[in-house]
Backbone:
């Protein structure tokens, strides 16, 4: 080859190499699909899934995902509030690392995942779970000998609970604050941070003061040597502890007395979930006894205006709340071993509502409502009612709350005008199971204090299962009033239908079943009593409302005919006595009926 032709070939090869290098084409003869712009892109694959993390309340949580695939890769993080919930995109979370700051206890159990995408497809990581512990690493302290200018340490504690939970204190959201036993006078405690855990102790932080709900003498004065005692000094005014608008507060081992309200919580939003825990929180002597309706022990929400959701109250004692003991206005709350007592009778001091629920999916269990006989107000024991009295009757612009799916189990009512009651048309699909009601009826002419079950004002589709009722004036009552839209004196009313009383045991009642008109003579409704037993019942049916739709299955009815000197009992009395007909009874038995059975039985 001549030098001229060799030079031309060299120039051609150099030019070809330059072209291939500029276009990114392989120059070594291999098919390099990873670098070729004409090669098929590779979809993403997750090489490292985000790991579950555990952090304290108020801390920062971080999740990271790693992926391979043709670049560029994009990232989208999603969250769900539990393994069965739907996934939702997190706005602005578009990098391989997700950082959550100041996490709250309400995020406990939430899950996070990342979806990685490129032009070839997408890959979804495994979910990672966030666990939020209730206790932070740093604790703060309050003691009667402290000073609010102190450091909040064990050796330099703060003096007031009010300061410790205020925005001004150095305890951050999510902090644990230990409060030493002693008297804390004239404080109105307002929590201004979320996630605070407030724990009372007797002598050493973390010790367990006595559980006052289990005390053999519930009326004993609260002892500030046992646990912190907030004493407002005037039951006509003030709020002992205010949790309104806060989340994830724990109150443990603290007593409150002589305020208008003991403890209040709630938020104006019905969807606001608080997740408070109140345990061994005790309240005494609340309300202005000169006011016809004043004084609440523990108020979770306020009917129609404030809502409490996801709150637990456990081992609580409430004594002499002039209007209401414990109220649950919201959804998904739990009351366990809450005991409400009243023995006051000065002015309007007698408790009206002992335990009241206005909301859905609440549980009240292992609890007690105990009224001293003879008080001026007969008292409502364990009640479920709507806010129809406010919205329908008074025309207030509140959202309507129709309580459903609440469960009352293993509770006891003593000497209550209504031991267990469902009230108003919107109250449906609630269950009362394994409850007991006791009264003072002796079997003589005096009716005595205490009634069992009350179904009123159109409440329907509720169940009362395994109820024990003893020594009461009235065992089971069906009545109607002018509440919930009735303006009477004798409108059509609101019969409650499809309520079932199953396996009730009634012993020594002045009246077995009372179809009580109160001030509306509507029909008693189509309800069923089955598998039940009535013994020593002086007046089996007290019919002051029509009751032709009632049904009785597989039950026994025994009167007082063989009991001396009770010789004036009857099977059915009242202006609608004829409504109790043989066709309503299936597989039922009748014994010891004074005066005998009506014709046809």
Residues:
């Amino acid at each position: 080859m001549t030098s001229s032709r060799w030079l031309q070939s060299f120039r051609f090869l150099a030019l070809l190499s330059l072209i291939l290098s500029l276009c990114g084409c392989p120059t070594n003869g291999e098919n390099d699909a990873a670098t070729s712009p004409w090669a098929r892109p590779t979809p993403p694959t997750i090489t490292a899934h985000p790991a579950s993390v555990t952090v304290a309340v108020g801390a920062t949580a971080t999740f990271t995902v790693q992926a391979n695939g043709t670049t560029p890769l994009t990232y989208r993080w999603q969250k769900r509030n539990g393994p069965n919930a739907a996934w939702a995109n997190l706005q602005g979370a578009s990098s391989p690392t997700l950082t959550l700051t100041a996490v709250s206890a309400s995020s406990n159990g939430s899950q996070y995942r990342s979806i990685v995408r490129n032009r070839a497809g997408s890959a979804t990581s495994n979910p990672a779970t966030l666990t939020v512990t209730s206790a932070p690493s740093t604790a703060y302290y309050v003691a009667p000998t402290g000073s609010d200018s102190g450091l909040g340490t064990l050796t330099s504690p703060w003096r007031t609970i009010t300061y410790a939970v205020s925005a001004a204190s150095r305890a951050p959201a999510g902090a644990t604050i230990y409060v030493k036993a002693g008297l804390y006078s004239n404080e109105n405690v307002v929590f201004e941070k979320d996630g605070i855990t407030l724990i009372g102790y007797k002598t050493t932080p973390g010790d367990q003061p006595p559980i006052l709900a289990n005390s053999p003498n519930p009326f004993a004065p609260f002892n500030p040597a046992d646990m912190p005692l907030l004493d407002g000094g005037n039951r006509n005014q003030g709020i002992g502890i205010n949790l309104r608008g806060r989340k994830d507060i724990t109150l443990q081992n603290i007593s409150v007395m002589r305020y208008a309200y003991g403890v209040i919580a709630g938020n104006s939003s019905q969807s606001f979930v608080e997740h408070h825990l109140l345990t061994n929180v005790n309240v005494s002597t609340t309300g202005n006894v000169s006011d016809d309706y004043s004084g609440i022990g523990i108020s979770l929400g306020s009917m129609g205006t404030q809502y409490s959701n996801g709150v637990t109250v456990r081992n609580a004692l409430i004594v002499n709340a002039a209007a209401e003991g414990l109220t649950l206005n919201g959804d998904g709350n739990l009351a366990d071993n809450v005991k409400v007592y009243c023995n006051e009778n000065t002015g309007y001091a007698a408790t009206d509502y002992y335990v009241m629920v206005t909301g859905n999916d609440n549980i009240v269990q292992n609890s007690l409502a105990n009224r001293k006989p003879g008080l001026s107000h007969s008292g409502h024991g364990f009640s479920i009612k709507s806010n129809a009295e406010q919205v329908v009757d008074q025309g207030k612009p509140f959202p309507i709350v129709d309580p459903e799916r609440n469960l009352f189990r293993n509770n006891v009512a003593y000497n209550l005008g209504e031991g267990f009651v469902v009230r108003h048309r919107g109250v449906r699909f609630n269950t009362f199971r394994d409850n007991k009601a006791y009264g003072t009826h002796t079997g003589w002419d005096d009716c005595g204090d205490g009634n069992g079950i009350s179904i009123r004002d159109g409440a329907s589709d509720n169940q009362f299962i395994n109820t024990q009722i003893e020594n009461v004036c009235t065992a089971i009552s069906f009545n109607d009033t002018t509440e919930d839209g009735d303006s009477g004196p004798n409108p059509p009313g609101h019969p409650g239908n499809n309520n079932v009383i199953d396996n009730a045991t009634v012993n020594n009642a002045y009246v077995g079943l009372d179809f009580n008109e109160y001030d509306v003579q509507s029909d008693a409704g189509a309800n069923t009593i089955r598998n039940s037993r009535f013994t020593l019942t002086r007046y089996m049916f007290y019919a002051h409302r029509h009751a032709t739709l009632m049904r009785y299955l597989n039950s026994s009815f025994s009167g007082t005919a063989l009991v001396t000197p009770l010789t004036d009992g009857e099977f059915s009395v009242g202006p609608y006595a004829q409504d109790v007909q043989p066709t309503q009874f299936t597989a039922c038995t009748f014994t010891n009926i004074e005066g005998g059975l009506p014709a046809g039985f």
